[in-house]
Amino acid sequence: MQSKNILSTIFHFSIQFNIMANNLISTTFIVILFALVLAGKSQPFSTSLPRSTLRLGRQNLTRLHFFFHDVVGGPNATAIRVAAAPITNTSASGFGAVVMMDNLLTVGPEPNTTRVGRAQGMYASADLNNMSFMMVQNYVFDEERFNGSTLSILGRNPISSPMREFPVVGGTGVFRFARGYAEARTFFFNATNGDAIVEYNVYVLH
């Protein structure tokens, strides 16, 4: 009789333990779910931060000078037309042509001078009457001081003008929160195959 009582007690204890364990698991799950919901609601869409958070108190003004090598002809072309409009080949301005580029940037006008990075992006003929390109490009620098940093350019390039100006719309790495402008002057143009070397002066606040 005593052994039956012991077994009965153990059985009832086991049932009570399982009920408590299940309740504990359910409670824990509810608490975690509630915490996740609160965490999701506790982060607003926008938050005003002090400038010191990202060290924006004082910015540098940097001038960059380099040469842009636009190679469109031959087996080693770095700028290639990837799209065209129905009127591109008959348009005086080549309207609608889209060119993707990965052009070399160097400190001097010769391609074998010190490399500072590449200009990656595209340009497209965006003027029906005049030779003018829409420039969308990232300067990707690999020069020691700016290695891994980029500058983003977006603007109109009337290529027949002696000097063209494009806005700097942003950057990464050293150039986070960058703003400024770039001046471009054609240094050399090959009328036979379209290759060009363009001199750039870029003024950047960062």
Given helix and strand content, the structural type is alpha+beta
Largest sheet: 8 strands, antiparallel, barrel
Number of helices: 1
Which range best describes the helical content: under 10%, 10-25%, 25-40%, 40-55%, 55-70% or over 70%? 10-25%
Order of helices and strands: HEEEEEEEEE
Order of strands across the widest beta sheet? 1-3-4-5-6-7-8-9
What amount of the residues lies in strands?
35-45%
As residue ranges, the low-confidence spans are none
Counted beta strands: 9
The pLDDT mean sits at 86
What gyration radius follows from the Cα positions, in whole Å?
32 Å
Cα-to-Cα separation, first versus last residue: 88 Å
Tertiary shape: globular
Quaternary structure annotation: single chain
Commentary on this structure:
By secondary structure, this protein is of the alpha+beta class. The protein is 19% helix and 41% strand. The chain has 1 helix and 9 strands. It has one helix at residues 2-41, and strands at residues 61-70, 79-83, 98-106, 115-125, 132-141, 150-158, 164-172, 179-189, 196-205. It has an 8-stranded antiparallel barrel with strand order 1-3-4-5-6-7-8-9. A hairpin with an 8-residue loop joins strand 3 (98-106) and strand 4. The protein is globular, with a radius of gyration of 32 Å.
